[in-house]
Design a protein that fits this description.
The chain has 127 residues and is of the alpha+beta class. It has four helices and nine strands; from the N terminus they run βββαβββββααβα.
Length: 127
């Protein structure tokens, strides 16, 4: 159900790591829990993040939620399409609904995140 090439955080963000770059978004589980997403606040390119730090917020018809960075590093790209079409996160959370790309300070931080199987068990335990 969850792409096996990604890693997952307990705050429901996913990471696609390629060398020292991490593409980050939220899982379809998080998107479904939020409902229809109406606004997303993302950091500016050049922002330095620490793992566990908020990097923005996401507002839906049901709730507002913080976005938590699963890795440390510098934001090198932001998905500007989400400004005008935040619903991409609901429609395609693992592809065009990505949020930011971070140049990681320490790529080994990815190893601390959950595999798809571990994340599925985590969600089952939460429900």
């Amino acid at each position: 159900m969850y792409p096996e090439d990604l890693k997952y955080s307990q705050s429901h963000e996913w990471v696609r790591a390629e060398d020292d770059l991490a593409t980050i978004g939220i899982t379809d589980f998080a998107a479904e829990e939020l409902g229809d997403i109406v606004n997303i606040e993302l950091p500016e390119v050049g922002t330095t993040l620490s793992a566990g730090q908020s990097f923005g917020s996401i507002d839906s018809v049901k709730a507002a939620s913080e976005l938590i960075s699963p890795v440390s590093g510098e934001v090198v790209e932001v998905n500007e399409d989400l400004e005008s079409t935040p619903e991409l996160v609901n429609q395609e959370p693992f592809s065009s609904g990505w949020m930011i790309i971070v140049k990681m300070e320490d790529p080994s931080e990815v190893d601390l995140l959950m595999t798809s199987e571990e994340y599925e068990h985590f969600i089952e335990a939460e429900e």
